[in-house]
């Protein structure tokens, strides 16, 4: 190959290395069947958007990958090795990190304590990771001893992302609606962080969003989920340009 | 007059601190595992019986004070791993039935092995007799109980506030699933907390076994008082449990001074007032965001 391509997905077919493979999973909550024969593939270095309306099953897809709501059927593999059936903590140790919907920071703990907890599962000295995180998120540095629950939504979102990056090395970050409830200015900040993590740190990203336009502008590849099924699968730019599909699937005019 | 007040204060503090040892485990287990452990009184009782056995067989109160709680911890580990763990996803009613059943089994086993008569843990010479505290002549052993339980509670308090383990415990109490997604094996944390609570209850059992009688009814006897403490302090709050235990200890001791027949009534009235004024207890729900 002559040159390293600018956008990792540009030569998806030829050099792509599959990082995460979700193959034909079916997931249930109790008796209710939520995901139907769902398959996804994410290559190393990509940003993949998973979009769809309320209740489509986006969060459930992430929960399936994370082992929080294990699929009843189908397989999930990371770097070619099956991870379905593993406990959530084992899946995290294999490099899959999660920034949940509503952020779920530990509100009664300080910022520093939230981060210490996340770092505690990593191997060896984690102080470098700490400094990196504080450098990337100066707002958190200023607020080390503030209780996380008293911070603004945007600050909590930064903390949730920082927390996901500490501890065992993160290969792929699953972000669930990071822009939810944030002011437009802060949404831009979050988008910048996602892009930086991807470009500078080489973190592969699976981005779930209601804010489809924001997600598709960031992403290389896009999947659309409807009633627990993948109904569209294309490069993100292609979906973004397809007005009919955008309106039909996502209600975006 | 001053003498009896001073005496009651010492007694109340001692009562409160030992109660705190038992209540701490109950409240932490609830806060993290979401289980109301009705077997907690039975674990306390086991501490007293194991203490009696170790002190009797090995002839050392000090060994009893160390070994008996560890033995209770082992029993706690067995209860958590083999009986509670399969039930976490179930309705809380199952936890109540299970732990209540375990309490009855432990009580039955104790009667089977040691009989129904009362026993006592022999106290070493060093700790027998009494000393004067100001104008009061007070048993050395009771002061010892106050000192040991206060020290333990202080250590646990510091650990919860400062150590990584304490952070982990507070985070798990808040959002267990999130903790597991950070790479932490929460089932180990659960076992650890249950064992920790059992050990603290076991220490209280040995300490009180040296001053009160050790008998098969003591488990169910203590659990009501402990529940009142935990409810007043706020379910799940360690700090709340300690403050409430001291409050209950002092009210019981002063109550005995003023109107001995009414102390139980005082306790229930206090619980009712706290519940009406602040249903989550004095320190309840402050932990959560
Ligand atoms: N714990 C649960 N028990 C039962 N059903 C659930 C549970 N969580 C979600 N569901 C159902 O599963 C379906 C998919 O939910 P999911 O949360 O995955 O959707 P989503 O795409 O993330 O939606 P949103 O954009 O609103 O977050 C919905 O119909 C929802 O009602
Ligand atoms: Mg969702």
How are the elements arranged and paired?
The complex is a heterodimer of chains A (253) and B (289).
Chain A: H1 12-15, E1 18-29, E2 32-43, E3 47-51, H2 58-66, E4 73-78, E5 81-82, H3 88-93, E6 96-99, H4 111-119, H5 127-136, H6 138-142, H7 153-165, E7 172-176, H8 184-200, E8 204-209, H9 212-218, E9 221-226, E10 229-235, H10 236-241, H11 243-250
Parallel strand pairs in A: 3-8, 3-9, 6-7, 7-8
Antiparallel strand pairs in A: 1-2, 1-4, 4-5, 9-10
Chain B: H1 2-33, H2 40-58, H3 61-84, H4 92-114, E1 130-133, E2 136-139, H5 140-162, H6 164-174, H7 176-181, H8 186-209, H9 218-233, H10 238-258, H11 263-277
Antiparallel strand pairs in B: 1-2
Account of the protein in words:
The complex is a heterodimer of chains A (253) and B (289). Chain A is α/β, with parallel strands linked by helices and 253 residues long. Chain A has eleven helices and ten strands. In chain A, the strands form two sheets. In chain A, strands 6-7-8-3-9-10 form a six-stranded mixed sheet, sandwiched between helices. In chain A, strand 7, helix 8 (184-200) and strand 8 (204-209) form a beta-alpha-beta unit. Residues 1-12 of chain A have low confidence and may be disordered. Chain B is mainly alpha-helical. Chain B has a single domain (2-277), classed as Orthogonal Bundle (ABC transporter involved in vitamin B12 uptake, BtuC), CATH 1.10.3470. Helix content of chain B is 74%, strand content 3%. Chain B is built from eleven helices and two strands. Chain B has a two-stranded antiparallel sheet. In chain B, helix 2 (40-58) runs parallel beside helix 4 (92-114) and helix 10 (238-258) packs antiparallel against helix 11 (263-277). The longest helix of chain B has 32 residues, at 2-33. Chains A and B meet through helix 3 and helix 4 of A and helix 6 and helix 7 of B. The structure holds adenosine-5'-triphosphate and magnesium ion (MG). Magnesium ion binds at residues 58-59, 101, 176 of chain A. Chain B: The chain crosses the membrane at residues 12-31, 38-55, 61-82, 94-116, 140-160, 189-208, 214-235, 242-259. Chain B: One of its GO terms (biological process) is amino acid transport. Chain B: It is a multi-pass membrane protein.
């Amino acid at each position: 190959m002559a040159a390293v391509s600018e956008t990792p997905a540009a030569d998806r077919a030829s050099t792509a290395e599959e990082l995460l493979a979700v193959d034909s999973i079916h997931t249930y909550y109790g008796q209710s069947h939520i995901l139907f024969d769902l398959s996804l593939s994410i290559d190393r270095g990509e940003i993949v958007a998973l979009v769809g309306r309320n209740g489509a099953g986006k969060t459930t897809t992430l929960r399936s990958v994370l082992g929080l709501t294990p699929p009843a059927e189908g397989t999930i593999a990371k770097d070619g090795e099956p991870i379905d059936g593993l406990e959530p903590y084992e899946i995290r140790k294999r490099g899959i990190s999660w920034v949940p919907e509503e952020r779920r920071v530990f509100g009664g703990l300080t910022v520093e304590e939230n981060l210490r907890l996340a770092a505690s599962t990593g191997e060896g000295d984690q102080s470098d990771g700490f400094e990196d995180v504080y450098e990337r998120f100066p707002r958190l540095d200023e607020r080390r001893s503030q209780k996380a629950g008293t911070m603004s939504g945007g600050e909590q979102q930064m903390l949730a992302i920082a927390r996901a990056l500490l501890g065992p090395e993160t290969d792929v970050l699953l972000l669930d609606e990071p822009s939810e409830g944030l002011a437009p200015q802060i949404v831009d900040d979050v988008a910048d962080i996602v892009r930086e993590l991807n470009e500078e740190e080489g973190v592969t990203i699976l981005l779930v969003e209601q804010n489809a336009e924001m997600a598709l502008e960031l992403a290389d590849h896009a999947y659309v989920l409807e009633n627990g099924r993948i109904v569209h699968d294309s490069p993100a730019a292609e979906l973004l340009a397809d007005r009919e599909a955008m309106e039909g699937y996502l209600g975006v005019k | 007059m001053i003498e009896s007040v001073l005496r009651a204060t010492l007694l109340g503090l001692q009562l409160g601190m030992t109660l705190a040892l038992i209540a701490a485990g109950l409240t932490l287990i609830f806060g993290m595992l979401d289980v109301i452990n009705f077997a907690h009184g039975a674990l306390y009782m086991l501490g007293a019986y194991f203490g009696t056995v170790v002190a009797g067989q090995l002839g050392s109160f000090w060994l009893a004070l160390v070994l008996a709680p560890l033995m209770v911890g082992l029993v706690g580990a067995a209860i958590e791993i083999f009986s509670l763990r399969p039930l976490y996803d179930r309705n809380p009613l199952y936890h109540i039935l299970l732990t209540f059943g375990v309490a009855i089994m432990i009580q039955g086993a104790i009667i089977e092995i040691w009989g129904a008569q009362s026993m006592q843990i022999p106290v070493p010479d060093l700790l027998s007799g009494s000393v004067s505290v100001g104008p009061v002549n007070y048993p050395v052993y009771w002061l010892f109980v106050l000192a040991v339980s206060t020290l333990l509670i202080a250590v646990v308090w510091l650990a919860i506030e400062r150590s990584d383990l304490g952070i982990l415990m507070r985070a798990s109490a808040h959002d267990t699933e999130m903790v597991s997604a950070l790479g932490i094996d929460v089932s180990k944390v659960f076992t650890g907390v249950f064992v920790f609570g059992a050990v603290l209850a076991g220490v209280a059992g040995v300490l009180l076994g040296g001053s009160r009688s050790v008998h098969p009814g003591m488990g169910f006897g203590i659990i009501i008082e402990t529940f009142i403490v935990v409810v007043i302090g706020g379910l799940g709050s360690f700090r709340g449990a300690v403050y409430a235990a001291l409050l209950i200890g002092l009210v019981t001791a002063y109550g005995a001074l003023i109107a001995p027949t009414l102390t139980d009534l005082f306790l229930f009235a206090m619980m009712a007032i706290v519940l009406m004024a602040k249903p989550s207890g004095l320190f309840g729900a402050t932990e959560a965001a």
